[in-house]
Design goal:
alpha/beta, Rossmann fold, elongated
Length: 590
């Protein structure tokens, strides 16, 4: 049974090397076992070398697409193109979830997921995941004697379009560095090899070259896959690079680069005399354990990219932070920040949350902290009471119906009862429902707000650190409007993406955001979001002020310093949480 469909897009352009196509062909062979896999080659003329490789490795000609079908879509589209043309990115983005491998094009930021396998120069858009291990490297071996260079391997890939092999062989022959009979050359060559053929072994290709690299004492290659395969094999290597770009990459990784387009005699002789600590490089770049690229991609289980608030399709949403298992998108339509996940998530909200998990975070269980949470409810109810009085233009507000969604063990319900409200709760944890009914004596629904059928409207509906958990906020906020009387109060609290933690380091703030926080709010976008659902924000209260999170707080660790930073935090609204109090102004149309 097919599980997923894939479109694989390799670079098949002269001068770009065959490594991209080889990697795609290998991925095709692994994925096709239980998936539908097509290859798309978006060039008018496929060079003969690349066409031969495709015909030898792809099962059927109809799996190789020269044009994109109008209606066809795929679950995942994987590009190994190096620098994908802008128009190709946009045409493919409409066809499926876009995964870029070592992508360095102008539209790098448009890819849904970025995998950097080979270390690169710094990009303004960082990758979701970076690991040399996804190359399917040979088994890591300890390094051989760095000064015993007898058996030499020269390989500049399947193309070598600027004849680095010929240049290097002429250089070696002229300077007599190595014994010709001990030299092996792997790669298609465009020059006349007859003068070398009797002394040097030549191969157009060797199946699974990386598995025999360890047989050699020294490898000459360029920056790329073979360099890292050699590093993993425990063999010293030297680079002769085709471009300045490759040279810069070599320098960044501290690899030994002996020249651009031609070898430098002084650099080679220095290496032969002094050597290089390749063991340190191996420890730095070659992971002890790693997974394969096909296994990594097969683990993808994409949650919906649709905006939870306005149901914008997500195609033009900006990715503001990339992590291994999730992206944070900013919706251009409603402004909300939301998460898209790449793996199935376990349910983190369970009974243990109120006990072991809560104690690990706060030093006591939820029930042990019950009275403190109830005290936090006091100023919230004071604001609600005042707002209700302004709306109703009267003081008598007894017997108003209040619904607290995600009420836990009921501290807010208990405090609201003291304020004259008739409290009702909704809670998904059965133990908490039982506690509220037996210990507090309040009405409480067991289940989720989305699915529970409510037979009446309420005067107040609250959600304290709950709103960020809903997957379909459009449905939830529409239902809140439906279940709230006109003139009623909708109040909630949530983390603040414009608080001090986010101001200091936005990426770190989002990285620390819990996986079950589907949406990330801030006061600026709240007014517009709620207005979509018939609410008018009456008050926003910034909470969660933490002076110790200011970068310069350590210079003022005094009571006066603490108070100064509290004032600054309040003036500039830098609390890490905030509360919203809104009035329902109108009914929504069905």
């Amino acid at each position: 049974m097919w599980t997923n469909s894939y479109l694989l897009v390799p670079s098949c352009v002269d001068g770009k090397g065959t490594g991209h196509l080889r990697r795609i062909i290998n991925l095709y062979k692994k994925l096709k076992k239980d998936s539908i896999v097509f290859i798309y080659v978006p060039v008018d003329q496929i060079p003969q070398l690349y066409e031969k490789m495709l015909k030898e490795n792809i099962d059927r000609d109809d799996l190789i697409l020269k044009t994109l079908p109008v209606q066809k879509t795929w679950n995942y589209i994987v590009l190994d193109y190096m620098k994908t043309p802008d128009d190709l990115v946009f045409s493919l983005k409409e066809k499926g979830f876009l995964i870029g491998i070592d992508e360095g094009g102008n539209k790098r930021g448009q890819f849904d997921y970025l995998i950097d396998i080979i270390p690169s120069l710094e990009y303004s858009v960082k990758a979701n995941y970076s690991s040399v291990g996804l190359m399917e490297l040979p088994e890591r071996r300890l390094y051989q004697n760095a000064f015993n260079f007898k058996n030499i391997l020269i390989t500049f890939g399947g193309e070598d379009h600027i004849s680095l092999t010929e240049t290097l062989l002429d250089f070696i022959k002229e300077n007599k560095y190595f014994i010709a009979s001990k030299i092996t050359v792997v790669g298609k060559n465009s020059f006349d090899i007859s003068e070398y053929k009797n002394a040097i072994r030549f191969f157009d290709s060797i199946n699974n070259l990386k598995s025999i690299i360890y047989e050699y004492d020294l490898v000459f290659t360029s920056f790329g896959l073979t360099a890292f395969e050699t590093l993993a094999s425990g063999v010293p290597f030297l680079l002769v690079n085709p471009t300045m770009y490759h040279h810069k990459l070599s320098k960044k990784c501290n690899f030994v680069d002996i020249g651009i387009k031609k070898p430098d005699k002084n650099k080679l002789e220095k290496f032969l005399k002094i050597g290089k600590d390749f063991k340190a490089l191996q420890e730095k770049y070659i992971p002890a354990t790693y997974t394969t690229l096909d296994y990594f991609i097969k683990k993808f289980n994409i949650s919906s990219t649709i905006c939870p608030v306005c149901h914008h399709d997500g195609s033009s949403s900006n990715i503001i932070s990339r992590l291994e298992s999730r992206n944070f998108y900013n919706c251009p339509e409603c402004g909300i920040t939301y998460q898209v996940f790449f793996k199935e998530l376990a349910n983190s909200y369970r009974k243990d949350y109120f006990f072991d998990d809560y104690k690990n975070q706060y030093g006591c269980t939820y029930l042990e902290d019950f009275e403190n949470i109830q005290k936090i409810s006091v100023p919230r109810l004071q604001i609600i009471n005042k707002l209700r009085y302004v709306i109703n233009k009267k003081k008598n507000m007894l017997n108003l119906e209040l619904l607290d969604i995600g009420c836990a063990y009921g501290p807010f319900l208990l405090e609201s009862k003291k304020n004259g409200y008739i409290p009702t709760g909704i809670e998904i944890i059965a133990d908490a429902v039982k506690y509220i009914r037996s210990k507090l004596g309040f009405s409480v629904y067991s289940g989720t707000f989305e699915t529970i059928k409510l037979d009446k409207k309420f005067d107040i509906i609250t959600m304290w650190y709950v709103i960020e958990h809903f997957v379909d906020l459009k449905h939830v906020l529409t239902k809140v409007n439906k279940q709230l009387k006109t003139g009623g109060v909708f109040a909630f609290s949530t983390p603040n993406s414009s608080g001090i933690s986010a101001v200091k380091n936005k990426d770190e703030f989002l990285n620390n955001s819990p996986f079950d926080h589907i949406t990330v709010w801030n006061p600026d976008i709240t007014v517009g979001v709620l207005s979509r659902f018939g609410f008018k924000v009456k008050r926003i209260r910034i909470t969660g002020h933490h002076p110790e999170r200011f970068s310069s707080f350590s210079l003022f660790k005094t009571k006066l310093g603490y108070n100064i930073f509290i004032i600054i935090s309040k003036i500039f609204g830098l609390g890490d949480t905030f509360e919203v109090y809104a009035e329902k102004m109108k009914e929504l149309n069905d």
